[in-house]
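Schema walkthrough. Field components (list of strings):
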Amino acid sequence: MSGAWRWLRRNALLLYAGVAVLYMLLPIIVVGLFSFDETSNGKLDYRWSGFTLDYWRNAFADESVNEAMRTSIELAALATVVATILGTLMALALVRHKFRGRGISNLLIILPMATPEIVIGASLLSMFLIYGITLGFTTLFIAHVMFSISFVVVVVRSRLIGFDRSIEEAAADLGAPPLTTFRTITMPLLAPGIVAAALLAFALSIDDFVISNFNSGTTETFPLYIFGVSLRGIPVQVNVLATMLFVVAVVCIGLVLWQQRQAERMAAVRPEAEPAL
Amino acid sequence: MTALRRRLIPYGLLGPGAIWLILFFAVPMYFMGEMALRSGSLDTGGFTFTWEWQNFSDALSGSNEQLVRSFVYAGLATVFALLIAYPLAYAIALRAGRFKLLLLFAVVAPFFTTYLIRTIAWKTILADASPAVDVLQFMHLVPEDGRVLATSGAVIAGLTYNFLPFMILPIYASLERMDVRLIESAKDLYASSTKAFLRVTLPISAPGIVAGVLLTFIPAVGDYVNALLLGGTGQSMVGNVIQSLYLQQRDYPEAAALSFVMMVAILAVVVVYLRLAGTGAFMGDEDERQA
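Field assembly_structure (string):
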């Protein structure tokens, strides 16, 4: 009886997990579904009227949506590059070195993640106002790098902690200069962590609404655009682009996971093989 | 390499990022405090620093109701999120087997659609006469002629949904690291399943719960998107007031003062909570914790 009981219980939990996951995915399904919704005036009206492919065929017909999406992608790309570099260097310092001021550095990294977004947005706006700085792409860039750094540090640090230092020591013993060791050993092993951190930074940036809402001036990112039109009526193209974005993100994640698995398999089978990079 | 250069390396690595965080996170906090003590108006040549403490009492008396509502909504959303997240995180960490990666992916999937779009999707799901609302009415969870949108329930449901991954992931991480043999040995020592769970699993996942609760509660208090899109006029939260003071009414000093009041209130709740939870472990270094 204990076997059957345990089997039932395990499946009850998994059944629950299935329902919970469906709940997590429900809004995404709705967004995908309603990108095929035939509305009377091309705006979302929160109810199903009929199936159409029109909005997918004319996905890029609404120039203001495209413009906002372009701004978002540019901003996210720039902010990701800068935040990933700064965050990775910080993670290296924190894991690899003992130095005075570690505690306060940790605090400086944790606090932004524990501060409500609205406070980050409002305080940055206060500073920009006091100095009379014009709000726009630059202020958005400053803000996006700022809130991404902490997350990059956390992700890269977790990768660094599980890092086998003996490989680096071996390289050094064999006479490799520190920079060569870093380039040929440290970076390739660290790469999956850095890629994951960069993806996270990109996702955070492209998704951000609250902080951007405070510091955008007249510049419009994708979320800000949606917010702006949400009272007047949202073009169905928004759902189409959101679905595309989701699919692209899923494919990227899939590729990263696949690459990581390949790398791990290679490392496990042939530890003597040269790294691909 | 000289000893001095070696000692300077960590500062060189840390420097650029730390400067960015100081200039654009720490320093702005000071300016928000400064702004909160200014007086004047935009029409009469802007705001000047005058130690205007009045702003704080104005902010408090003007938005008392929204402030209380924010903490109640965020508290309820945190409790619901914990109830939904714990079994799910447990299932993913210890029972999912080959479905693990798939389930984990589903948990973070909402991050790949814009926050606003997700919330607007909930607006569609909870709209009057939508299938979901019909079911709720059929089950008499909502009155026959009642609606879900523009109620407290809709806002709390939105908050719960939107911050759920922040609850699931830390709990998952703490359970994932657990040695399953601990549960087995508890059972070998004749502990019932319930007792093994209460004495072994729950304490091990406690740091994850503490982190998850904070990561859910803190942003939920300051949120204004859910109240704006899913709530009605009677559901506005403190974030809505701050946003409107800053961006529509342009009363920057009072807006800054209210932001400060909210932050101090959050900090007070967090300190009390950490005392009660009896742990500050999650604040420490990852490497120190593992040691």
